[in-house]
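Repro:
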Amino acid sequence: MKLNLVMPIVGEVLKSPVVIGTTIVILLYLNFVFFVARYKKQPPKPRKPKAVAPVAAKPAESASDESGAEDAEI
């Protein structure tokens, strides 16, 4: 066959929607495969410990209250 007879046939095959769609699907699939092959999960960032609010000290009770409370328990 002569080249001038083959070129129109090749042009029609390459313009076919089936060939174009298949080419796009194959390229997307290969892109996904290479992405998965190169994917490295990043280590999680260390979390800063939450600052614990200092607990407010309760006011000291008077000495008479403490002694009275101890007497009541006995």
